[in-house]
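User: Okay, second chain of the day. Same drill as before: sequence in, structure tokens out.
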Amino acid sequence: MSEQRWLQLVCQTDQQNHAIIENAMESANALSITFQDAKDTPVLEPLPGETPLWDELIITALFDYDTDLSKLTNALETHREEWHVGSVLVETIEDQDWERVWMKDFHPMQFGDNLWIYPSNYDVPEDDSVKILLDPGLAFGTGTHPTTSLCLEWLDQNHPTDKLVIDYGCGSGILALAAAKLGSKNIIATDIDPQALTATYDNMERNNISKDAIQCYLPDDCPQQPADLLLANILCGPLRELFPLFASLTRSGGQLVLSGILSEQKDQILETYSAAFKDFEVKILEDWVRISAIKT
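Assistant: Same drill. Structure tokens below.
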């Protein structure tokens, strides 16, 4: 039995013209269409329901191998100036187990002294370390990004034993999982993306964590009970907007850990949160910042 193959078309354009090119790709029966930054420019602070795009982007479309792409490529060439089309590449893609290809580069990672993340296909050693099994999924958070790493390091150094924890913007649930592994039995995980809640539940099951330990909610449904520890690994804009909520969701004397903040945004967060928090500590990793504090 021969392996399946596909055709892949890759072209560069700008934000203003991506929609018309996307429509042309869909008309050519594209199986999938993805966008990628063409100039290494970060997209920050998306609003709920918003799909932000870069000014210059690369569009990649996947087609059945026997698809005739001549009409599409002719259109891209004809409208090259009008649609601001840069380079166009058509290539054959061989069949692969894409998840396993990705996973071969996903290795065990250590955070702090004793907290580890392992891919689920890895032979996990039998030792006294705290282990989280995690595979890449639909939601943000595998531990590889500095913002997540900073939060995991903090949890390793500050076990939330028997504390009520809120993981606000839970993504894959990685921080909630770590809190559960490190002693919390009452965790609230919330995210604006329903896929994040699904990923969190899946990862709870993978790690044999009781559904009673982590309760998942969309933000509008989230209980308003003040927590002993509030974790929020999101972005500077939302963190500033959410200050009144986070102040109300953190009990007096409770701990706050914020990340997703660029170094140049640190002072904005400190200024905003100083109205209700004290004893700030700042840690920087690769131009990303973690800020921890105590509720007054």
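The chain has nine helices and 14 strands.

User: Thanks, on to the next one.
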